Amino acid sequence: MTTPLLKVSNLSKQYCTGFKWLQRQHTQALSPTSFELGKGETLAIVGGVGSGKSTLARILVGAEERSGGDIHFEGEELESRNLNQRCRLIRMIFQDPNTSLNPRLSIGQLLDEPLRFNTQLNRYERNKQVIDTLRKVGLLPEHTDFYPHMISEGQKQRVAVARALMLNPKIIIADEAMTALDLSVRSQIINLLLKLQKDLGLSYIFVSHNLNIIRHISDKVMVLKDGEVIEKAPTEQIFTSPQHDYTQRLIAEQTQRLQTR
User: Distances in Å between the alpha carbon of 108 and those of 120, 132, 176, 180, 216?
Assistant: First the structure.
């Protein structure tokens, strides 16, 4: 049996909300959640606001601590790897490049930063990798001298993709990464991500509420509601034969929105 690239077992997250009668009070942001992701596979995580999907993404990328559960990468407990290794394995593309890209740094500096802090490459080697990665995402070497405010929204998202690629990760998590883009630019970025997946063997976790995108790019879907997984199945099965009434409602609402455009 093939070992999955990523195996998540009973991952959970609680937040302390204060004290009552000297007892610590908690809110459950993510109930015990389990899933697997294979090499070159795309998992979509869908759900409404407060469903726990972004919390799950942030835990996986190391931006937030889990309250319980295990994460295994290629059969090895992820906790046992150091921070540099963690940065290399799983990278994230955030929703809004305007807030995730430091406006005071040039594109070249933004892409050089992960290499400077996480590798032993010299300046020449880092510069070469920055330019190679810019080309991979459809940008030019000259873009290294540009600042975020000097380029279009679509180009900013390409820079965000390039930044996620800098340490040659095996998994990229996209947290609502297409939401702010107009339709034509969104299509370009999706096609770029699909090409990168094919060329580099990447695995993706897409966190999104846009079921149109999900159906086009994912292999399987996990539906969250109030911090709980309520349905998990191959993509076509979710769309053609959803089992849970919440999933049925999400698909119906999306279909209705498309019909009223």
Answer: 18, 12, 25, 24, 32
Could you say which of 3.40.50.300, 3.20.20.150, 3.50.50.60, 3.30.450.40 is the CATH number of the domain covering 6-259? 3.40.50.300
Taking alpha carbons only, the member of 157, 205, 160 closest to residue 180 is 157
Compute how many other C-beta atoms are within 10 angstroms of the C-beta atom of residue 38.
15
User: pLDDT by residue (tens digit) across 162-202?
Assistant: 999 999 999 999 988 777 678 888 889 999 999 999 999 99
Nearest-angstrom CA–CA distance, 249 and 135: 42
Confidence (pTM): 0.90
DSSP 189: H
Report the sign of the C-alpha dihedral through residues 141, 146, 150, 155, in that order. positive
- Show Cβ contacts of residue 40 under 8 Å, excluding neighbours closer than 6 positions: 197, 201, 202, 203
Q: Can you give the residue ranges of every domain in the chain?
A: 6-259
- pLDDT at position 49, please? 85
pLDDT > 90: percent of the chain: 63
